Automatic annotation (TrEMBL):
Source species, domain of life: Bacteria
One family name in Pfam for this protein: p450
PROSITE patterns: CYTOCHROME_P450 (PS00086)
PANTHER family the UniProt entry points to: CYTOCHROME P450 YJIB-RELATED, P450, PUTATIVE (EUROFUNG)-RELATED
SUPFAM superfamilies (UniProt xref): Cytochrome P450
Any one GO molecular-function label of the UniProt entry: iron ion binding
Family indicated by similarity: Belongs to the cytochrome P450 family.
Sequence intervals crossing the membrane: none
Keywords assigned: Heme, Iron, Metal-binding, Monooxygenase, Oxidoreductase
Protein name: Cytochrome P450
Length: 417
């Protein structure tokens, strides 16, 4: 029996748990393919799924219709929880200017050196999540974003609970301890606010006293002449600096761990990636990382809430109207394999452009620091794969949650290839 035939035979109240099981299965692509072919817009008692590339893009390019209202409880006034507001435009513009793309060679070099340093000190094996995939992004937050003299453990904790509350604490996250997650996130955000308040005050005092600051994002914001004329007061600075941490650690860790595991479990893909990793220009290697992440994505969906009724597939046999107030899950994990948009979508092709998938979202709410992640993630993967004889010892263990908590690898003695 097909997925949809089985779904239609299931009592309505039990349908969404079944759909949720399929979305979160080891390989949901057969379910997604069936949706694209037979029911591109699938309504359930909890939310509506949108499966085709063109319709997913339609959801993501219409922020006034498909809003990020579901994020508000977790993210408050942060720009990610706003749609086409003046504050959203201002905050994004200022922070984009601070996260200068000319920094990317510096960022990549820092990631390479830090990752090699950890691996060199590990002997011949390491638990990667604690040792690399969470640790290196935290180091980048400390050194490049400017979280000076911070506790690495606290940064990880704050990022973890904010990510849990912001992206894994909704009605469709079945089995989540919703109240505990929200409470832990609130506690962490309070601690982070206290830390950042002290940090900003001390660094502002250093500037006033004529002392120089390292070139990091906090220093740039404090020294920028943008802040005064356009109205970027201390509370905005604090909110947006905090957002840098929340967006950097857990997502980068998850993507890196999943790519490494996926490649190590597939020797032909691994061999090709290792060969590419040894080239001086990392562009070819990076393609292997992003294509692996298309097959092992961080999430198969995003979420929105409709502010108005909307018609999908107008004039098609499957034309569907969704009412205002509908929770909508644009299935990015399905859209990235839509044969109407991509040639040979089920084939592994490291030459595909990065926009063949939705690693950093799309449109109005695309990841602010996506360009940073474009060097952070593949360089961590690259340094690991350059260890001679690299092999998987223990696969990813999520310990009942959405994020990788451990991943063991080992290699032969000696330095990087």
């Amino acid at each position: 029996m097909s997925h949809l035939d089985r779904l239609d035979a299931t009592p309505e109240a039990e349908r969404f748990p079944l759909v949720w099981q399929w979305i979160n299965s080891e390989d949901p692509r057969p379910f997604f393919a069936e949706l694209r072919e037979r029911r591109p817009v699938l309504a359930t008692p909890v939310c509506t799924l949108v499966a085709r590339f063109d319709d997913v893009i339609e959801v993501l390019r219409l922020p006034a219709v498909f809003t990020v209202q579901p994020y508000v409880n977790a993210l408050g006034t942060y720009m990610l929880a706003q749609d086409e507001t003046p504050d959203h435009a201002l905050d994004k513009s200022v922070m984009t200017a601070m996260l200068d793309r000319r920094d990317l060679p510096r960022v990549r070099a820092f990631v390479a050196a830090e990752t090699d340093r950890v691996l060199d000190g590990a002997g011949e094996r390491i638990e990667l999540v604690g040792g690399i995939t969470r640790y290196i992004p935290v180091r980048l937050v400390q050194e490049y974003f400017g979280f000076a003299e911070s506790s690495a453990a606290k940064l990880q904790e704050w990022s973890y609970w904010a990510q849990m509350d912001g992206f894994h604490n909704y009605p469709w996250d079945l089995g989540a301890d919703h109240e505990r997650i929200h409470a832990e996130a609130r506690r962490g955000l309070t601690e982070m606010k206290d830390y950042l308040t002290g940090l900003l005050q001390s660094r502002a005092a250093a500037l006033k006293a004529g002392r120089s600051l390292p070139d990091d994002i906090v220093a740039r914001l404090l020294q920028s002449r943008i802040a005064g004329p356009v109205g970027f007061p201390p509370e905005k600075l604090l909110l947006n600096v905090g957002g840098l941490l929340i967006g950097a650690v857990e997502t980068s860790s998850q993507a890196t761990a999943q790519v490494i595991e996926w490649l190590l479990q597939r020797p032909p893909r691994l061999d090709a990636a290792i060969a590419a990793a040894q080239e001086a220009d990392p562009k070819t290697f990076d393609g292997h990382v992003w294509e692996a992440l298309r097959f092992a994505p961080m999430s198969h969906y995003l979420f929105r809430k409709s502010a108005a009724a909307h018609v999908f597939g107008r004039g098609q046999a499957w034309e569907t109207t969704i009412p205002a107030g509908t929770h909508v899950l644009p299935l990015i994990g399905s859209a990235g394999f839509d044969p109407a948009r991509f040639a040979r979508p089920d084939a592994f092709d490291p030459t595909r452009p990065i926009h063949s998938a939705f690693h950093f979202g799309w449109g109005h709410h695309a990841c602010l620091g996506g360009h940073i992640a474009e060097v952070l993630i593949p360089e961590m993967v690259r340094r690991v794969l350059l260890r001679p004889g690299i092999r998987l010892e223990t696969p990813i263990d999520r310990r009942g949650g959405p994020f990788p908590e451990s991943l063991g690898v080992a290699w032969a003695s000696g330095g990087a290839v």
